Amino acid sequence: MHVNIFSNGDQALHCGGCDAEIHGEDHYIALVAKTLNKTYEDISFNASSNDRIVRTTVEWFENGNTCDLAIIHFTEDFRIEYITDELDYQTCTPFGVKNHQYPTSKYKELDYYYENIYNPCIGSDNFYKNQFLLEIYFKNKNIPYIFLKLRNLPIRSSWNNWCKNQNVTTTHSYMGANDGLLGSAVINRDNYLEHHPSEKGHQKIAEYIIEKINKNQ
């Protein structure tokens, strides 16, 4: 399959279960494709980790699919994939673990991991390793791309020094700051539904991507 735009991130076109329902036609990827009259394929998955985003992106291309442009929205550094069996990956977040939501069979052990092993340095290393891997993959495959990230990381990693893209645009603002495309959810409430972009927020992200695409033509 060939499409004009491929995208992957941590919010599916139809996001449910988090009080932030977004219809497919309102998602920023759909808005970009509609504005530019392009075809698209989005394989984003709710609460994805960066491990999952990169793994499923590589899998999509290795299955023989192609695109003119890839748009990747990296997510929180503390999310991981818990591998329960061969080729069986489960999404894992600190909040899901604390609420005993997922993975249901291992939340006690994973709670211990987040309480006693995980730290922001581990998260930063994992984030930038994923960015570095995808940069190398896209370069080798000659795939044009645009990277976004959910937030600025509080701690740097040596892997960051080896990434080509040193200033990936941030969409959300955290920890009292008012930066990123959408600003703070406290100050810029119209840009958010809970912690997800609102319809206005998706439009702002779409406008940024469209501007980037037009500049590179």
Structure in words:
- The protein is an alpha/beta fold and 217 residues long.
- It has a single domain (2-78, 118-215), classed as Rossmann fold (3-Layer(aba) Sandwich).
- Helix content is 37%, strand content 19%.
- It has a five-stranded parallel sheet, with helices on both faces.
- Strand 4 (80-85) and strand 5 form a beta hairpin.
- The longest helix has 22 residues, at 120-141.
- The protein is globular.
- The mean pLDDT is 89.
Helix fraction by DSSP (H/I, runs of at least 4): 25-40%
Quaternary organisation: single chain
> Which fold name fills CATH's third level, the topology?
Rossmann fold
Q: What is the CA-atom radius of gyration, in angstroms?
A: 17 Å
Alpha plus pi helix count: 7
Q: Write down the overall geometry.
A: globular
Structural class: alpha/beta
What percentage of the residues does DSSP assign to strands (E)?
A: 15-25%
CATH homology superfamily name: SGNH hydrolase
Give the count of structural domains. 1
Explain the layout of strands and helices:
Elements: E1 2-8, H1 28-36, E2 40-42, H2 50-62, E3 66-74, E4 80-85, E5 88-92, H3 94-98, H4 107-116, H5 120-141, E6 145-149, H6 158-161, E7 169-170, E8 192-193, E9 196-197, H7 199-215
Parallel strand pairs: 1-2, 1-3, 3-6, 6-7
Antiparallel strand pairs: 4-5, 8-9
Helix pairs in contact: 1-7, 2-5
Q: Care to give the gist of this entry?
A:
With 217 residues, the protein is of the alpha/beta class. The protein is built from seven helices and nine strands.
